[in-house]
Amino acid sequence: MKTNQKVILHQYGLILLMLFVLGVIMTSCSKDEASSQEELPELTSEGKNTFGCLVNGEKWVAYTSFTIGGPIALEGTYNLSTRGFYITATRDLDDQNKFETIRFGIQNLTSAGGYDMAATHLVTRGFTDYAGNYSCSMYYVDTTLVHNVLITKFSHAEGVISGIFNMDLINSACPEDTLRIRQGRFDWSMVIFN
C-alpha cells in the first residue's frame, strides 16, 4: 500500500473514532437532561452552580446542554461597589419544547440574611418563556406579593453565594396566570465585578 493511502486510511479512522466518541457524549447528555429534571438540587453552599425551584408545583431545574456560544444554565454577577447581585437561570429542554429563564436580583447584598428582591426595571422580569408554553411570554416580580431571598452563604474568600427564595410573578396581560415560585434554591460560584 502506498504511503498516501496509509495516511488517508489513518485519517479516516481518526474521523470515525471522533464521530463515535461524539455520539457517546451526545447520548449521555440526553440521559443527563432527563435525570437533571427529576429532582430539585440539594441545598448546598459550596459554589456548585445549581439552581432549582417549583413553578406552580412543577419541578424546574436550570439545565442547558453543552453548545459553543449557546445558553448557559446559571449566570450571575456581584458588583463590589454597588453590592448588587443578579442571577439568571436557564432551562433549555429541546425534547420537551422548553426554553425558559428565571432571574432576580438583590440590592445592597452585604452578608448572609434575608432580603427582598430588587424592584428595579432591570430585574423585575422574573420569568421568560421563549417557547410559547405559557399564556404570556414574560412574568414580572410583584413587590406586593411574595418576593424574598434568604442568603445562606455569602463568602468573598470562597467565591460563593447561596440561598433559598420564593416569589410570585405576574403579567397584567394575563391576570389569571400568577406564577408561584416556591422552594427555590441556588448555589453559585460568584463572578465579582468592581
TrEMBL record:
Q: List the source organism.
A: Wandonia haliotis
Is Membrane found in the keyword set?
Answer: yes
Question: What protein does this entry describe?
Answer: Uncharacterized protein
Spans traversing the lipid bilayer: 7-26
> Where is the organism placed in the taxonomic lineage, from the top?
Bacteria, Pseudomonadati, Bacteroidota, Flavobacteriia, Flavobacteriales
Recite the UniProt keywords alphabetically.
Answer: Membrane, Transmembrane, Transmembrane helix
